[in-house]
Amino acid sequence: MEKLDIICGVDEAGRGPWAGPVCAGAVILDPSKPIAGLNDSKKLTEKKRNLLAPLIYEHALAWGLGWASPEEIDTLNIRQANHLAMRRAVNALKLSPTLALVDGNDAPTLGCRVETLIGGDGIEACISAASILAKTARDAKMLEYDALYPEYGFAKHKGYGVKAHSEALRRLGPCPIHRMSFKPVLAVNSKTSSTKV
Question: Which residue from 90, 92, 114 is spatially nearest to 101, judged by alpha carbons?
Answer without folding.
Answer: 114
